[in-house]
Amino acid sequence: MSNGEQAAGDGHTLSIRGVTFAKGLGTHGAADIKYSVGGSCSTFTASVGIDDEVAPMGTVLFQVFGDGVKLYDSGSVTGTMTAVSVTVPITGKSVLELVVANAGNGFANAHANWGNAKVTCP
């Protein structure tokens, strides 16, 4: 679900410029989410962008870290952009960290989606 607002469960289906995602993570910047992947996974993939519930507003950076090392930075992603495809090799990494960071304008309307977020493991 998307981030929603104040109440628990008040989000909607993840949606970026009209494309919906049945699975993924709906966050609000600033966000820092860590997963233990045990060093046995190979790839992280997602489609990232600003949720339609606040678009065309909102601007953030999507970043992926492995064991504290930055592996991916989207650059500035705005609410007028279609989803950005992310594919990051994470072979040998123990901790996968997904970050939504400030793109220079604060976090107003920063409903940041990681659509179809997936870690590929054997």
In short:
0% of the residues lie in helices and 55% in strands. It contains no helices and 10 strands.
Written overview of the protein:
The structure is a single chain. The protein has no helices and ten strands. It has strands at residues 14-16, 19-21, 24-28, 31-36, 43-50, 59-66, 69-78, 84-89, 95-102, 111-120. The strands form three sheets. A four-stranded antiparallel beta sheet has the order 3-10-5-8, with no helix packed on it. It is an all-beta fold and 122 residues long. The protein is globular. The model has no long low-confidence stretch (mean pLDDT 93). It has one domain (20-120): Jelly Rolls (Sandwich), CATH 2.60.120.1060. 0% of the residues lie in helices and 55% in strands.
> Which percent range describes the beta-strand content?
over 45%
Top CATH class: Mainly Beta
- CATH architectural grouping: Sandwich
Helix proportion range:
under 10%
Mean pLDDT: 93
Order of helices and strands: EEEEEEEEEE
Instruction: Indicate the overall shape.
Output: globular
Q: Between the first and last Cα atoms, what is the distance in angstroms?
A: 27 Å
- In oligomeric terms, what are we looking at? single chain
Main β-sheet description:
4 strands, antiparallel
So how many helices? 0
Report the structural category: mainly beta
Number of domains: 1
- CATH fold-level assignment: Jelly Rolls
Poorly predicted regions: none
Total number of β-strand segments?
Answer: 10
- Strands of the biggest beta sheet: in what spatial order? 3-10-5-8
Q: Indicate the radius of gyration in whole angstroms.
A: 14 Å
The CATH superfamily name is NPCBM/NEW2 domain
